[in-house]
Amino acid sequence: MAFGDVKTDQGIKELNTYLADKSYISGYTPTQADVKVFEQVGKAPAASLPNALRWYKHIASYSVAERKTFPEGVTPLTAGAKTTTTAPPAKKDEDDDDDVDLFGSGDEEEDAEAARIREERLKAYADKKSKKPALIAKSSIILDVKPWDDETDMKEMEKLVRTIEMDGLLWGASKLVPVGYGINKLQIMCVIEDDKVSVDLLTEKIQEFEDFVQSVDIAAFNKI
Fold it and tell me: b vs e for 134-173, b when ≥16 Cβ sit within 10 Å of the residue's Cβ?
C-alpha cells in the first residue's frame, strides 16, 4: 500500500490507513522515512485519524538530535508526492543478482542501531545506579560486663571499656544492673558496622581488662 501527498486531506487519510497495522513507515524501528513524512505532515493529524495521530506523537517524542540517528528507510509515497528519502539504487541489470539482499542486511543495520541505543541506555542506567550510596549494614548490641566482686570500681571499669576505639564502633548509653550479693554488672550499648567490627574481637578486648572484668556476655543483638 502507498499513500499520496500527506499535505492534502486525501494523502493524510491514506497515511492513516497505511498505519492501521504498522508502527512505523518502514520496518520495525523508526527510520529516516518516518522523519521525512513527519516533516511533510507538519502538524498533528486530527483525532479522527487515530493511526496517523498516534504515529505523529510517537515520532514527535524524539528530539531533533535523536531523529538524526535514525537509519535510512524507504517511504512508500506515490509518484505525485515529493520526498527526499533515499530510494533503493537501480539494478545494473535485470539478471544481476548482486543487488539482491539475500541476508536482510538492512534489517541487520536497524537491529545494530537499536542494540547500540539499548546499550547506551543500559550504561547510563548502570552509571546512575552506581552513584547511589551503598547501604551500610549495622547492628545494635547490648553487652553485659560482669566484675569480679562487689569491690570492683564500676566507674573505672566503664571508663576502660569506653577507651576501646575501633573503626565502625560507637558506644551508647550504659547502666548498672544488680546481679545479687551487692554485685552490679555494667550493661552498655553500642552500635557497630558489621563489615568493620567483629563482636568476638570486641568482647576479647573488653576481657583484656582482667583486673576489673570477669566475663562479657551479649544481652541483645539486633540488626539495624
Answer: eeeebeebbbbbbbeeeebebeebbebbeeeeeeebeeee
pTM: 0.42
Q: State the cell numbers at 92.
A: 545494473
13-25 tens-digit pLDDT: 998 999 888 899 8
Over residues 36-64, the pLDDT tens digits come to 999 999 999 999 999 999 999 999 999 99
